[in-house]
Write a structure and sequence with these properties.
Elements (H helix, E strand, L loop, with lengths): L32 H5 L1 H7 L5 H9 L4 H18 L18 H4 L2 H17 L22 E2 L6 H17 L8 H23 L1 E7 L7 E7 L3 H13 L2 E5 L5 E3 L13 E2 L9 E2 L4 E2 L5 E2 L9 H4 L5 E17 L3 E16 L1
Parallel strand pairs: 1-3, 4-6
Antiparallel strand pairs: 2-3, 4-5, 7-8, 9-11, 10-11
Helix pairs in contact: 2-3, 3-7, 4-6, 4-9, 6-7, 6-8, 6-9, 7-8, 8-9
This protein binds 2-acetamido-2-deoxy-beta-D-glucopyranose (NAG) (4 copies).
GO molecular function, one term: frizzled binding
Function: Ligand for members of the frizzled family of seven transmembrane receptors.
Protein name: Protein Wnt
Length: about 350
């Protein structure tokens, strides 16, 4: 199986569960000295860049940190969105990327890169872009000012397209082959990821004027919180359209009775494995040992999560904050209580 990684592998960092910003310093991408030394060391240290991405890396060295952050935000969001699923996005490596369920998480990377680069522009971190220069929305009330420093969605979108898609665009496969279908699927889903970020961007305003009178407002373009992007993409994922190649080598919908997917929707070309058992070749970790919910009938319920193998019940001790009291002024003090709960674990 041939499998692709959209942006690149962030060396040594995907397995760390630490979310603190400090931990990012372990990543060669985020060591500022690497930029001073010059293009070669930084770009050659990144595992998994395609030829085209290496060139872009050299041209846009100051962007690389944000691409790394964006990709990581995407992976973290994937792990959050899929935490109650059999496949929980925890194996982002070569093999797990072989299947569409896994592959489809990569649109979250494309989206994460738009997000990170657009913000970096606004914050003045990049030499080739600045605040958004998006046109004033037509429906903005006439006396409100337009042009606070907004997230540069336009630039972030274009850069993500250039960089994340480079890997796919530099490949070529025989017309009609499975690989060509997957390439088209990846490009389609990357675009859907970017468009979802773009669709959720909104106008944000700030009041000015004498003591909160709000007689004057300044407004700018603002990206949505990335959690919203994740929520929206998860929904699209659950209603993704099945596709196949037609005789002219184009990707078309398998079931023509449904509305054709747009560039905002996710698509897939093969069913995922069921992820019930560990399988090296599909990158499935299996669900043995996963926590499940005895009373839920959803994917997190023991029946579905454990694939009918049954579960073991344990008593587990958990520590909680409890008896919280508000103290004048201004803090909350809690006790720590231990509680015994039932936990259910897949056999
Ligand atoms: C992915 O595959 C490449 C080439 O086969 C290999 O060099 C690399 O170590 C693999 N990475 C992981 C995380 O398994
Ligand atoms: C692993 O998955 C592959 C592809 O779906 C399948 O052919 C193979 O039988 C599976 N292996 C095991 C041990 O289940
Ligand atoms: C995801 O599932 C694997 C086993 O299938 C488990 O080892 C891992 O802890 C899970 N990750 C999270 C974040 O729940
Ligand atoms: C288990 O699922 C039920 C029904 O969906 C839900 O009400 C409950 O909060 C869940 N329990 C846990 C521990 O998540």
């Amino acid at each position: 199986l041939y499998c692709s990684i959209p942006a690149f592998t962030v060396v040594n960092d995907l397995s760390s569960s630490s979310t603190s910003v400090k931990s990012l310093a372990m990543n060669p991408l985020l060591i500022p000295e690497a930029y001073i030394i010059g293009a070669q060391p930084l770009c050659s240290q990144l595992v998994g860049l395609s030829q085209g991405q290496k060139k872009l890396c050299q041209l846009y060295q100051d962007h690389m940190q944000y691409i790394g952050e964006g990709a990581k935000t995407g992976i973290r969001e994937c792990q959050y969105q899929f935490r109650h699923r059999r496949w929980n996005c925890s194996t982002v490596d070569n093999s797990s990327l072989c299947h569409w369920r896994a592959l489809s998480s990569l649109w979250l990377n494309a989206a994460g890169v738009v997000n990170a680069v657009s913000r970096a522009c606004r914050e003045g971190e990049l030499s080739s872009c600045g605040c958004s220069r998006a046109a004033r929305p037509k429906d903005l009330p006439r006396d409100w000012l337009w042009g606070g420093c907004g997230d540069n969605l336009n630039y972030g979108y274009r850069f993500s397209k250039e960089f994340v898609d480079a890997r796919e665009r530099e490949k070529s496969y025989p017309k009609g082959s499975y690989e060509s279908a997957r390439l088209m699927m990846n490009l389609h889903n990357n675009e859907a990821g970017r468009r979802t970020v773009s669709d959720l961007a909104h106008v944000s305003c700030k009041c000015h004027g004498v003591s909160g009178s709000c007689s004057l407002k300044t407004c700018w373009l603002q990206l949505a919180d990335f959690r919203k992007v994740g929520d929206a993409l998860k929904e699209k994922y659950d209603s993704a359209a099945a596709m196949k190649l037609n005789t002219r080598g184009k990707l078309v919908q398998m079931h023509s009775k449904f509305n054709a997917p747009t560039s905002h929707d996710l698509v897939y070309i093969e069913s995922s494995p069921d992820y019930c058992l560990k399988n090296q070749s599909t990158g499935s970790l299996g669900t043995v040992g996963r926590l499940c919910n005895k009373t839920s009938e959803g994917m997190d319920g023991c029946e579905l999560m454990c694939c009918g193998r049954g579960y073991d019940q344990y008593k587990a001790q958990i520590v909680e904050r409890c008896h919280c009291k508000f103290h004048w002024c201004c803090y909350v003090k809690c006790k720590r209580c231990t509680k015994i709960v039932d936990q259910f674990v897949c056999k």
